Amino acid sequence: MHVLILGGTTEGRRLAETLDAAGVRVTSSLAGRVASPAPLPGEVRVGGFGGAEGLARWTREHQVDAVIDATHPFAGTISFNAARAAATSHVPLLALRRPGWTPAEGDDWHPVASLAEAADTVRGLGHRAFLTTGRMGLAAFAEVPGVWFLVRSVDPPEPPHPARMEVLLDRGPFTLDGEREVLRRHGIDVLVTKDSGGAATAPKLVAAREAGMPVVIVRRPPVPDGVPVAATVEEAASWVAEGAPAG
Questions:
Q1: Tens of pLDDT along 3-29?
Q2: Can you tell me the distance from the alpha carbon of 87 to that of 243, in angstroms, rounded to the nearest whole number?
């Protein structure tokens, strides 16, 4: 059985390791947005497919038996391309999505639908923002007046980006003590993030709660209609072991 994992997440990496250990042929596809990704088991390809048609063609040419979309919850374009490609090539598709975060007592969350809405919201909540939405969407914050941004990303961001900012190059998982120190050292008074879910980057939410800090949180887009969803690597591995049944 040949499984194509559309990866780039911790869950995608863990799934590749699990399936490879079980003797399944695995190809992990990475978008190439991180300059030096960590090594992966099995086969690895980097770069786009050329839309839904290109992905469908690739699955046919490489005799793919199942596709698992383990991309970031906000990588909407590839998820919808995968759904269209799977329908075209009649290959089973599963979305692996870690559950989103839920607010706890003491949280001051301000949910928004987009990065543009986040940019409009943050300027009314603080003056020194910890921006953890990734380097690809910084253009939305380029013209926000009166706010200084601490931008955390794996690789250095490229323009357009906020004029008043400092870049913190780092890769999760992050610790609670570390996040407390980041907020304290930089005088942060508002956090801006996406509802990525998972434990690797959740400590910043706890640190913000402890500090009584507002959090602007971008809601995640929905999974394409008709695509079954697994919440854990174990569920996705079981789906493969069962022969990748249709949803």
A1: 999 998 889 999 999 999 999 999 999
A2: 17
pLDDT digit string (tens) for 198-220? 888 899 999 999 999 999 999 99
- 3-class DSSP state of 70: coil
Rounded to whole angstroms, the maximal C-alpha distance in the chain is: 55
Alpha helices in the chain (DSSP H): 10-21, 51-61, 76-89, 115-122, 176-185, 203-210, 233-241
pTM equals 0.82
Bridge-based pairing of strands 108-112 and 43-46 is unpaired
Angle (nearest 5°) at CA 196 between 222 and 38: 115
Residues 11, 69: Cα–Cα separation, whole Å: 10
Residue located via tokens 């063609």: 57
